[in-house]
Every structure is written in C-alpha cells, then in structure tokens.
Amino acid sequence: MKQTVLTRYRVMAYITAVWLLVFTGAIVLKYGFDTGDTMVISQIHGVLFIVYVIFAFDLGSKAKWPFGKLLWVLAAGCIPVASFFVEPKITREVRALIDDGVAEPVNA
Hints:
- The structure is a single chain.
- By secondary structure, this protein is an all-alpha fold.
- The protein is 78% helix and 0% strand.
- The chain has four helices and no strands.
- The protein is elongated.
- The protein starts with a helix and ends in a 9-residue tail after the last helix.
C-alpha cells in the first residue's frame, strides 16, 4: 500500500464531512426557516460521497479490513461530524501498516 492511498482517503473524508455539514445546515434553513434551496448542495455532496466511498473502499481493500470495519468507515461519511472522529483513528492504523512495511515497494 502506498501513502497516496491514505492521503486520497483523508482528503475526501474531510471534504465530504464539510459538505455534509453544509448540506445539513441548508436542510435546517430550508425546512426550519423556509429559506433557501438544497438542490445544488445535495448534488455536490452526492458526487463527493461517491468519490469518498470509492477511496474508502480502495483503502479498506488494500489494508485488508474485514467487511464490518469497511461498513463502519463508510457509515462515518453519512453521519455529520463522524468523519472528524473516524478519520484520525483510521489514519493512525493505516500509517502503522505503512511503517511496518506492509506497503508496496517503490519501483525505482
């Protein structure tokens, strides 16, 4: 496994989490205060979430996670602020795998 796989996951975890918070705020404004529209925000978050799922699945398959752990990481992208707590834990675990030499050798 390469460091870039972890970096892609980390970037998308934070981007998706921020957009989920923006989307949640837009929903509160729309239905709580009858202002605004959520169409564009929901579409952006939907596309970003699909990319997040792809990168999380890629990381999970290369780290050889059990299916339950992969579902737990994917669910974190659906719960506002959960990614902010799950991502650092996953990063520590995967960095340990990379540091222990489980990563793929670099071709020179």
